[in-house]
Amino acid sequence: MSSHEIPEADEQLPEKRETAEGAVEVSEDPFADPGMPPHEHRKQDIDERAARRSERTVALLFTSSMLATIAFIAAYVAIPVDKYIYVFPIGHISALNFTLGLTLGVALFGIGAGAVHWARTLMSDVEIADERHPIEASPEVKAKVMADFRAGAAESGFGRRKLARNTLFGALALVPLSGLVLLGGLGPMPGTKLRHTKWAKGKLLMNQNTMQPLRPEDIVVGSLTFAMPEGMEEDQHDFQTEIAKAALMLVRLQPEDIKDKHELDWSHDGIVAFSKICTHVGCPINLYEQQTHHVLCPCHQSTFDLADGGRVIFGPAGHALPQLHITVNDEGYLEAMGDFPEPVGPAFWERG
User: For the Rieske domain, which residue ranges apply (predicted)?
Assistant: First the structure.
């Protein structure tokens, strides 16, 4: 080859290296696979005492996870929801939320760090090179995989390292309890709270706008008046919760226009009282049509007939509006004869 000739693209030039004696050594294949470097044993592979120290470290991490899970449950039970603490540099935060987050984080970290330390110090770390194989495994390959799995299980020390194994089982068994306990954060069991409101026998009907007790003459034909039970104040901590169940609307009809006898018996001089809470999704009803005696929920257009027991005549609502039995006391004020006879608002699975 002359100095002006260029070698073909697929023609490899031999690699030339000069040795210490000055001779030139020619490599036949400059791109040969150098292979894997020699395996370096870890201290735990050659020193059983070091291996036992690592096992104790793993067990300590798993045990810390178990203790943190127990602390999580204890904190959930013992720490009040309204207790606050100062944490620098965050400031004042909920003591319950802070403790739950801290203990759950330690519990999860203990499992993760223990598993990582186990893998790095006790499980086999011998480098293995394997050739690519077709996606569909042959019986020989399947047998090799199972053999490798059994060998890996043996080399992991899972059967021999009982202390690490048992503490791992304990940590994994306790951590799910954190999730079960958190279900209690969905709120207390409702008990009979959905079935009862602030209305009771003898409670005066208070005008929700003026906060004054209502007389029959305050309710004129064609008007829609909103009322709430006597004794409720807007500055009470549970006002919004209770008014969402006890809100009442009053309409005065001509007694001869009332079609339902039960409704007529529970009214006073044509004044009927119904729950203001729509039985679809609980929106407040505030639209009244005088000629038809219909009220309309503005959210999804459920329509109720106040002259016929508050029954649904249109829309997605599932049942009629509950009626409140009312009368007039000796002083001439409207008062309730008891609570609503059924739960107000949307239906729920226990509703009879």
Answer: 264-335
**CB neighbourhood size of 182 (10 A):** 13
Q: Are 174 and 228 in a shared domain?
A: no
Q: Are residues 208 and 246 in the same domain?
A: yes
Please report, for the domain that includes residue 308, its CATH number: 2.102.10.10
d(CA 175, CA 182): 12
Phi, psi dihedrals of residue 325, rounded to the nearest 5°:
-75, 125
- Dist. CA 173–CA 77, nearest whole Å: 20
The answer to whether position 271 is within a domain reads: yes
The CA radius of gyration of the chain, in Å to the nearest whole number, is 40
Whole domain around residue 262: which residue ranges?
Answer: 193-336
Give CA–CA dist 87/93, Å, rounded. 7
179 and 115 housed in the same domain = yes
Domain count, the chain: 2
pLDDT bracket for residue 67 (50, 70, 90): very high
**C-alpha–C-alpha distance, residues 316 and 190, integer Å:** 25
Q: pTM of the entire structure? A: 0.51
Question: Using an 8 Å Cβ cutoff, are 10 and 23 in contact?
Answer: no
Residue 300 per-residue DSSP state: T
